[in-house]
Amino acid sequence: MTTQHKATLSFSDGTPSVELPIHKGTMGPDVVDIRKLYGASGKFTFDPGFLSTAACESKITYIDGDKGELLYRGFPIEQLAVNCDYLETCYLLLNGDLPNEAQRKDFENRVLKHTMIHEQMTRFFAGFRRDAHPMAILVGCVGALSAFYHDSLDIQNPEHRFVSAIRLIAKMPTMVAMAYKYSVGQPFMYPRNDLSYAGNFMRMMFGTPCEEYQVNPVLERALDRILILHADHEQNASTSTVRLAGSSGANPFACIAAGIATLWGPAHGGANEACLVMLGEIQQQGGIEKIGDFIANVKDKNSGVKLMGFGHRVYKNYDPRAKLMRETCYEVLGELGLENDPLFALAMKLEQIALEDEYFVQRKLYPNVDFYSGIVQRALGIPTEMFTCIFALARTVGWIAQWGEMIGEPDQKIGRPRQLFTGSTRREVVPIAQR
Length: 435
Ligand SMILES: CC(C)(COP(=O)(O)OP(=O)(O)OC[C@H]1O[C@@H](n2cnc3c(N)ncnc32)[C@H](O)[C@@H]1OP(=O)(O)O)[C@@H](O)C(=O)NCCC(=O)NCCS
Description:
This protein has 435 residues and is mainly alpha-helical.
């Protein structure tokens, strides 16, 4: 970071002006460094939702929403998605560069050989109600991992941080598949280390002990791509939560559980589930015939209806991940012969109408990654309530890379936002008999 310019903040209430340094990163908006502001002026800044606040310095992921650009450690997502697999992407996010062949083999070996979880963990799963939401199970069970892996919890030790990162990446597929198996009452499937990361996960999800499970390479690649596209997305709500939880020195398993809890919300990881629910509703109302009515409703501001899976807070251009997911979506539907499935046909028609309709074109409302990833996951046979779990599985590497970056900073501080207090001023307690 370089610092050449300054901003001067002046006040109309007589407080002397404050000079604030402006830092320049390698890309993206400059930042005004307000760390000295309170000491110099006795004032805080006010920015609920962090709309204008950079809460950290990071070298991991860069997004340019206007250009529709997403870079992991400088590499465009489009290039990573076609040239690398998920584990190479994990290595990149964690280590800062892509692995060479020897590094790739070593990393793959470490992850794929640590996929089993402690056998006692199965009792945690069994403690949940049969109909528990898989995300509820995941939040609880990932947090519980910290009770099993004490030997890697010294967060000041880089080797411990690395071991915890590998454990989390390696065991998440097992945990997610167990959450699913528990919900459908099938036996847990032990991992198979000779399969790829995605292939092993598919087998643990869809295989049973009764017969051999054959991994379909087209579907395996599709799942791997979903994982790559969701691996990190800089300082979103769940990642910021992981950083804030980690800033107190909490262990990484607990921090990732906090991230999973945040991801669960419909405004974050729940969007693709919401998209599938919307498609189901249109289908119930009459399907393709009724798309016109539905779109008219979406355009009517008083209806409160939104076209789920369209638009993005950051991308005001085609989300680069959506382009890649669209490609995968067509590939998967073709492979499974689902092009004419009514729900998929409906989704494709909706995509076509929305891409041509003036309302969406004018507002730059493109289909987002969730629109396509929901369709792909449904085609893969993943039930909608599992979608956010898959997202959590993919994002675990991003969370742990961001957490590790923060803990590795020499002057890392506990996160402690301030507030604008608007409650009651000091008053005296009146004894209950006189109230
Ligand atoms: C993601 C989202 C919250 C971003 O919202 P935002 O940044 O507030 O979008 P903007 O305010 O820039 O929207 C601009 C205009 O498009 C409209 N708009 C945005 N998304 C829309 C959608 N999905 N359907 C219909 N209209 C939409 C807004 O009403 C606004 O219209 P106006 O200018 O006439 O008032 C929003 O697009 C949305 O709710 N999408 C559906 C949910 C979804 O898919 N979320 C996953 C995101 S990965």
